[in-house]
Amino acid sequence: MKRYGKPGDPTALLGESWECWDDNAIIGGNFAGETLAAVRAQLGHDLTGPIDPAERFPVLTKIIDAKAALSVQVHPDDAYAQRVEHQPVGKTECWYILAAEPGAELVLGWTRDTDRDEYERRVADGTLGEILRRVPVAPGEAYYLPAGTLHAIGAGIQLFETQQASDLTYRIFDWNRVGADGKPRELHVAKAADVLDFRATMPGAVTPIVFVDGGIERTVAIADRRFAVERIRVAQAGAALATGGRPMAVMAMGTELALATGSVATVLRPWETAIVPAAADRVTLTAPGEALIVRVQPDLGALREAAAAAGVSAAVLDVFFRRFSAASSALA
To answer: C-alpha distances in angstroms, 78 versus 85, 113, 195?
Structure first.
């Protein structure tokens, strides 16, 4: 994680940095030292907009550095999480690839349609890897993982993850590895089978929509009803983005990024994150730079209108937004 300015063991096979999380302590500004949860309680709807401020901040963002392949997993949807785990939400997530070694791959779904019986048999005999679909990755690609999607991060990949604020994970397969005690890690075979999508849906990288909006090049990669993720490039100081009355997480990328809302200004160092409250109508970027933006429970209609006003065709927008609505409907 040294590349991203994060502490940690450089010899570890996995590094995770939780960037936007309800329990994180804020490091600068008027609320320095307080957690996001404490600020949420103080500011209420000024921070969260239409989102209930009494509930946990609804997204978690991470930087993940996988030097070794991670286990194969699946996450439940909201209904299963509430019914079985007695938790408020399941986990839909997405990945933006920051860096990847040559030949690095994700595991996403199946090579063909399968079913619960075959899945359970192959987990038992250690052959599940034979029907897992591997997808080569490159920096700048984005992948959408609605709840129910089988997935794993391969070795040599660094990525930015945005997810629902849930830690519900069912481990499916761990490549027949054993831990330091000589025993395999626990698998959650039955619960995983309950929530898995067994169809070979062949998910791949999302084709983003790209447009210029007020001096900012916006590459919108993910437009789920829970969160929208976009990469922005600011060519000139003073460009601004509308919040749409929702909170946003802004993570600077390779260089410093200066931003301001009203009279409050800050400078983010590379790979630092700021939370822009919903009550801030706009966030002004007072110096050129690049960032990843996460809009929490976004107004997808407004996002579509902004892209259309910038010249993106209705046909392209239909295909883009349909990908997310179709996935949510299929796995609801």
So the answer is: 10, 24, 11
Euclidean distance between CA atoms 280 and 261, whole angstroms: 6
The verdict on pTM exceeding 0.85 is yes
CB 95 within 8 A of CB 205: no
Tell how far CA 98 is from the center of its chain: 12
Could you tell me whether strands 239-242 and 248-252 are parallel, antiparallel, or unpaired per DSSP bridges? unpaired
Judged against a pLDDT cut of 70, whether residue 331 lies above it is answered with no
**What is the Cα–Cα distance from 80 to 94, expressed in whole angstroms?**
20
Among all residues, which ones are annotated catalytic?
171
209-330, what's its fold?
A: Jelly Rolls (2.60.120)
Torsion of CA 48, 305, 142, 23, to 10 degrees: 0
Looking at the chain, which residues constitute the CATH 2.60.120.10 domain(s)?
A: 2-21+57-195, 209-330
Superfamily, domain 2-21+57-195: Jelly Rolls (2.60.120.10)
| 206-220 confidence digits (pLDDT tens) | 999 999 998 899 999
Residues 6+ apart with CB under 8 A from 117: none
CA distances from residue 256 to 63, 120, 262, 272, 321 in whole angstroms, order as listed: 17, 49, 20, 9, 32
